Amino acid sequence: MTLIAAAGNAKCTVIAADTRLSWNGKPVDDQTVKVSHYKFFDGELIGAFTGLAFWKDFNSKRWWLGRLKDVAQPWVSTREALSLLAEELSAEFARNSALRDLPLAQKRLSIIFGGLIDGLPFSALISNFEDDNGEFDNVRPKFVLTKADAVNATGAWFGLFGARDYVSDDDRQELFRLADIQAPTAAIKGKCHSIVLKASNDPRTRTTVGPNILTATLEGGVVLSWHSNEKEGDKIVGVDPFSSLAPMLIHDPVIIGTKIARPRSKRRGKGGKHSP
To answer: pLDDT above 70 covers what percent of the chain?
Structure first.
């Protein structure tokens, strides 16, 4: 399962996520973009997802991006759009014929959003298996929307989603500290990236948290960087640029580079050959 590390304040929002897809503990793809960009009349967000990517002819991200595009009207606020999305996800997962035979445990899905609404920090999570406090006892048939609204420009938030059990308490506390003191964006971005990278190197996550990390930063516009963590050094390859000029925008970026790390099970490191 993907690990997402995110944090934000009035100056910036950062979301980092690995780009591996896995199924039943086996890597399927290592260059899946899980980050998107959302702009409504009262707010601008970046987001990422962890959990069910697709099953048969149902593509989770394609579906909810399509629904948000449908509701992205000048009279629909950011909060209203997210509330509607949570309701419609619950209905779609209940009625979609492609998902009926899928065990409930395989239907886990979380979508994290972060950015600014009316200039104030905001974050939200839509999930059927976790909230800010941890995973639920069971996957729920209905998606739950949880929001964090800042009351003034000094507010800050952070979140770890998906494979978060592999993040240390020290890293959690440091990420929030950096967001809370409004540390330079590079410091927050570096911490989010390092948290995901550390998890990808954990023997317990080698087949589920991948070595390639896509980081999105919202700071007066959106910047994306793709890090392919090969043993010879960090590489950054291109991702199509986000545009923050449109008044209403739901955007799904694509990778335009090819220097992507091979699956960990096929790479050699200092400790010898990795295996799943």
So the answer is: 80
The 10s digit of each residue's pLDDT in 148-188 is 999 899 999 999 999 999 999 999 999 999 999 999 999 99
CA distance 61 to 32: 11
Q: What share of the chain is helix, strand, coil (3-state, %, to 5)?
A: 25, 35, 35
- The residue among 109 and 208 whose pLDDT is bigger is 109
Contact 274, 264 (CB under 8 A): yes
Element of type H or E holding 95: helix 78-95
C-alpha dihedral (59, 61, 67, 71), degrees to nearest 10: -170
Task: In whole angstroms, give the CA distance from residue 199 to residue 3.
Answer: 8
Tokens (6 digits) for 143: 């998606």
CB-facing half-sphere around the CA of 127: CA atoms within 13 A: 27
Q: Is residue 31 helix, strand or coil?
A: coil
Mean pLDDT of 139-150: 93
Reported residue count of the chain is: 276
179 closest CA partner among 4, 16, 10: 10
Residue at token pair 């503990």: 25
pLDDT band per the 50, 70, 90 thresholds, residue 31: confident
